[in-house]
Amino acid sequence: xxxLSVNLNKIALIRNSRDTRxxxxxxxxxxxxxxxADGITVHPRPDQRHIxxxxxxxxxxxxxxxxxxxxxxxxxxxxxDRAGVSDYPGFMALxxxxxxAQATLVPDGDNQLTSDHGFDxxxxxxxxAPLVAELKALGIxxxxxxxxxxxxxxxxxxxxxxxxELYTExxxxxxxxxxxxxxxxxxxxxxxxxxxxxxxxxxxxxxxxLHNLPLFSRVPGLLEVSIGHALTxxxxxxxxxxxxxxxxxxxxxxxx
Length: 256
Fold this sequence. Notes:
Elements: E1 3-7, H1 9-16, H2 25-34, E2 39-42, H3 53-62, E3 66-71, H4 91-98, E4 102-105, H5 121-137, E5 141-146, H6 150-158, E6 163-167, H7 169-177, H8 181-197, E7 201-205, H9 213-216, E8 222-227, H10 229-238, H11 240-250
Helix pairs in contact: 2-3, 5-6, 6-8, 7-8, 10-11
């Protein structure tokens, strides 16, 4: 079955709107786990505008489910400009220290509001390959954030990744518009089939929600979805426990 990993970035964003620890990130993670989440995801950015370095350490110390840390492996150290917030050590340095179950490498820039494209491994493959090798040597499963492009997915296997995470905004937009949904979904199905052919596991994430997830969950071999924004919004309406149960049902889990 497909694992549901809950992304806590938006919870941290709420916390950061005040000089407080409320909502407490580890406590919220535990609420998600108690409600049936299979994993926890965070995407710390150099400006620490939502998840902070200390959150990653705090989560690593208490999680009983898989921990997935996302980020751009090219980002280096950054001084913090906020009192009481530790400096950002760089993505690779952070992951080396914490050693999560999974590191998802994402080619996002400092000025992006959110991730909006997958890797171009024709351009970046030589830089990414040694980083993937280092992470795997540390026992960290490595996933690359990718568009549903079979040629690029084959390159992901060549650089040594364990999995890809399919960037699903194109599917979510087609679903919302009610236009060419089947054609767009077929792109993701072909991408997943290509991944299976070259020995890659398949994760997915970005703008998946309770409405579009049941159809997308038909993508073959889908191991994990990472969902944060929509799940947080739904929790305001339904409550956290009922929301996580609803997402598990959307993934076809009868007990959700």
